[in-house]
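FIELD: query
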Amino acid sequence: MPGKYVFPGGRTDPADKNIISASELPAQDIKKLLAGMGSKASVGRARALGLSAIRETFEETGLRVARTTSKNIILPNHEDWCSFLREGMLPALGDLRYFARAITPPGHIRRFDTRFFIAFRDQVPDLETQKIVPSGELEDLNWVTMDELKRLDLARITQAIFREAKALLSDYKAELPATIPVIEFTMRHRHYVREVI
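FIELD: result
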């Protein structure tokens, strides 16, 4: 989506499901992720979705959703995970909350089935001192407030996901319980559908 402002994200890699983490996704989030996977549902696949969100955020922005560890970390055979883990930090799946899903409408050349996770900004350790080293995939890397989003060129689905995030954060000021609903966007019978799961 050239010229559009987007979330960091990308494809889940096979290596994602094998990465050790500082904390795990809440059981309720795993249950919600499993419910939308069909016949290929597994806890390992649900976990990999959260880990890929953390890895892609790091790859594209340099930010780690992580916790420092004193454990001896065995580096995997995966360049991006090695870069993430070398600083003595493990991904913190427990800081994520699964809150939205969007499936590209039929008829598109490329279709995506995207899960969206949210975390509070203060759960990114040492945010103010982290060296932001973008990968080059994103051209304009910035923090913006929800009110500033109106001036950005966003795809309609990105706008919809931000509206859901804003509503969620207005309902839950200090903590996001794992019991929050998942909002799913899809197309049925040529109409966009928003469902609460």
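FIELD: remark
DSSP finds four helices and six strands in the chain.
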